[in-house]
Amino acid sequence: MLSTLLIALLALNGLILGMCLFLLGARHWLASYGQVKIRVNDEKELLVQGGNSLLLSLVSQKIFIPSACGGRGTCGYCRVKVLEGGGSVLATEQMILTPAEIKEKKRLACQVRARHDLVVQVPEEFLAIKEFQTVVSKVEVMTDLIKKITFKLIDPKTIVFKPGQYVQVSLVRPGEEPIYRGYSIASSPFANDIIELNVRRVEGGVMSTYLHTLKEGDSMVLSGPYGEFFLQETTNRSVVCIAGGVGLAPMKSIIAYLTEKKIDRRVYLFYGARTLPLLYDHQVFVEMAKRNPNFRYIPALSDDTVGSEWNGHRGLITKVFQEVFPAGEPAEAYLCGPPVMIDALLPLLAAKGIQPNDIYYDKF
Ligand SMILES: Cc1cc2nc3c(=O)[nH]c(=O)nc-3n(C[C@H](O)[C@H](O)[C@H](O)COP(=O)(O)OP(=O)(O)OC[C@H]3O[C@@H](n4cnc5c(N)ncnc54)[C@H](O)[C@@H]3O)c2cc1C
Ligand code: FES
Asked: Mind telling me which PROSITE patterns this protein's record contains (predicted)?
């Protein structure tokens, strides 16, 4: 009797163990897609671990795709064509892509999962984007929230970029997908062995908080250059730069380039911040305006109390631009700052006669 009971118990245990093993195996089988092939631009064939986003799969193979929102499907920067194997267009993608783009098979690389073999086409300029091993060579505290961080390029040792473009910073945390964020290059293209970034710490922000912990000697991987926001060099019209807060970063690169290349164009810098301590690099531009008759510097404080030592413009930079910039002057405009500032500026620029095709901006 006892032996029958023992045999029954053993059989039951065996059955339970077998079921557990079966479930574990099934889970592994369901979760793993094995390796998938990605054919890129009819040139390269990549073999990647299936199941990850197309964006991460391409980046893991050193094909760098812009991703300003860190893969949340909100910035639209990661558009590529998926000719085969991408599955249905997701609702998140339908909010960003136009019907015409969907028809021509454009997708958001961060939203497409590499579950099956894929055939994709990425813009040729993405294939030129490189990864840079760097070391932090200088950290300067500019305001309570903004740090200027300079990276010395180690490998490759130099970078070629257009003034206004940005780099992506990657952060790999154990057990989590890597995250990527864009930061405008603030240094001049002529200082091609370094990259200066101006980073505003965002409350609770993963990357900006991390970047604020960097100190001299720390290693960092950057990729770039990215972006279609850069100085146009086909005309001699005036260059109107309008920056809010840390939106100054790409303007510094544009202005440094124009100055160092001695390009004979009139340059305006409208630069807005709440208070004087937040107007970082203010003195640099004050001095530059004294030396360079082509450069006009128009700073404005929006929250400065009347009666303080500030004797410049007061109010939002949008209002100051409207008051100061002469209507009808042939110009192109470069805007960088919070979305609300840029949205408010677009009709004001139009009213001054600056055509939509001559307005370039990065919102952040
Ligand atoms: C082309 C481009 C260039 C950029 N250049 C610069 C630059 O030169 N300097 C710079 O400091 N930043 C720049 N940014 C913004 C930068 O990429 C990050 O978005 C920013 O640093 C926040 O990232 P995070 O990981 O710290 O915050 P996250 O972890 O992404 O966000 C944390 C929280 O903060 C909110 N949040 C995110 N961004 C902002 C914001 N800007 N203001 C208020 N709340 C926010 C989020 O909604 C979230 O709730 C640029 C962005 C783009 C697209
Ligand atoms: S939409 Fe921003 S990375 Fe894809």
From this structure: 2FE2S_FER_2, FAD_FR
